[in-house]
Each structure stands twice: as C-alpha cells, then as structure tokens.
Amino acid sequence: MAKFHSFSFPYLCLAFLVCFILIHASPAAIDEPTGLVDKVCNQTSNYTFCVEALYSDRRTPDADSYTLAFIAFGVAYANANSARDYIAELLKNTSGQDYHSRLEICGHDYLRAVSKLEEAYNDLNSETFFGLAKLAGVASKASDHCQDAFRGISSPPLGSRNGDLKRLCEIGAVIAKLFTGSS
Ligand SMILES: *[C@@H]1O[C@H](CO)[C@@H](O)[C@H](O)[C@H]1NC(C)=O
Ligand SMILES: *[C@@H]1O[C@H](CO)[C@@H](O)[C@H](O)[C@H]1NC(C)=O
Ligand SMILES: *[C@@H]1O[C@H](CO)[C@@H](O)[C@H](O)[C@H]1NC(C)=O
Q1: What is the CA(51)–ligand 1 centre distance, in A?
Q2: Residue-level pLDDT, tens digit, the chain, 183 residues
Q3: Quick one: which ligand is closest to 163's CA?
C-alpha cells in the first residue's frame, strides 16, 4: 500500500504538470469567446479571424454590443490607417511607372476606407447606427478595388492587408446589424 502511494504521488504531480502545460500553452489567451462574440463571428466568413481580431482588444471579454462595435470599427480603422501609411512609404520608394500608378489607386482606396471608417466611428459616438453597415461596405469595396489594381502582379505589395480589411469590415457590418435589426 505504501509502495502504491509513493508511486502515485509523483505520478499525480506529473499529471497536474501536463495539464498545466496544456492549458497554458494553448494558442492565444482566448479562453472561450463570449456568447456575443460567438454569435457575431459565426456570421462572418472566417470565424477564427473574427475572434482573433476582436480579442486583440482587452475589453472584448466584457464587451456589450455597443463596445464591441467600437472595437470592431476601431480595429478596422487602425488597419486601414496603417495600410495607408505603408502605401505612402511604398510610393516614395517606387520608381516604376506602372507599379506607381497601381499603388496610387490603392492610396486613394485606402484614403476612402479610412475616411468611411472614421465616419462610422463618429456615428457610433453619437449612437447613430443606421449608416454603419453601409460605411463598412464602402470601406470593404475599397479594399477589393485595391486588390483589383494589382491583378496579374505575382507578388502584390499589400500582401494580406486587403483581405484583412475586407474581413474586418465584414465584422463591423455584422455588428451594425445588431442595432438596426436587419439580418
Ligand atoms: C452558426 O451558423 C450556422 C450556419 O451559418 C447556424 O446553423 C448555427 O445555428 C449558428 N450558431 C450560432 C451559435 O449562432
Ligand atoms: C482564417 O483566419 C485565420 C486566422 O487569421 C487564418 O489562419 C486562416 O487561414 C483563415 N482561413 C481562411 C479560409 O481564409
Ligand atoms: C523605403 O526605402 C527605405 C530606404 O531604402 C527603406 O528603409 C524602407 O524600409 C522602405 N520602405 C518600404 C515600405 O519598403
């Protein structure tokens, strides 16, 4: 009996250690998306992307739909703004005429996206919800337009940025519909 105990105690320790490692090594710190996040992300084209994007903000675990709208449009805005800065950098560095003019198209697209997302943010601030989905749609179209501008180019300079903005806008549009009731 004593032998059994002296064997089982380290065994138990090891079991706990393994559990501890498994829990703490699991990807990201997203324990379990909230019901609201689950509901929103389930209506988007990429659930994982949606959950990761929303959980990039530490308010998400406690967010109601209003706060979640701020988070979604905030992330989309930050993304578009950073892409716009990046395009401006690329424009400075690029000498090829064809490439330059494609980049300029994207520069305009992202300018439009940033301004629409800014408008959405202001709408949220004044609790004006009816235009949100449309603004997200316009910003999303801007990313499509930029993507088209580099059609046929083997390694488009914006990489995944267009796709990211498109999906972020999609999240914003889904949340916007929580307020306007259409779905
Ligand atoms: C998620 O979406 C699927 C279909 O798109 C639907 O059948 C399911 O009920 C949804 N689940 C939740 C929790 O909303
Ligand atoms: C969905 O998003 C995740 C996380 O960003 C990404 O790893 C995955 O490739 C995406 N899936 C599709 C089908 O685009
Ligand atoms: C632009 O060129 C500078 C100097 O060559 C370089 O440091 C910078 O990383 C480049 N920017 C981009 C976005 O390629």
Answers
A1: 15
A2: 444 444 455 555 455 555 444 444 444 456 789 999 999 999 999 999 999 999 999 999 999 999 999 999 999 999 999 999 999 999 999 888 889 999 999 999 999 999 999 999 999 999 999 999 999 999 999 999 999 999 988 888 898 999 999 999 999 999 999 999 865
A3: 2
In the chain, the N- to C-terminal Cα span, in Å, equals: 65
Radius of gyration (C-alpha) of the chain in whole angstroms: 22
CB distance 148 to 166 below 8 Å: no
How many Å lie between the centroid of ligand 3 and the Cα of residue 83?
14
Centre of ligand 1 to C-alpha 164, Å, is 23
Ligand nearest to the CA of 183: 1
* Closest alpha carbon to 178 in 32, 35, 6, 4: 35
Give the other-Cβ count within 10 Å of 158's Cβ: 22
Q: Which residue's CA is the closest to the ligand 2 atom numbered 14?
A: 46
> Residue with the nearest Cα to atom 11 of ligand 1?
42
CA 74 – CA 68 distance, rounded (Å)? 9
In angstroms, the Cα distances linking 47 to 2, 34, 57, 142 are: 52, 13, 16, 22
- CATH for 33-180 is 1.20.140.40
The structure's pTM equals: 0.81
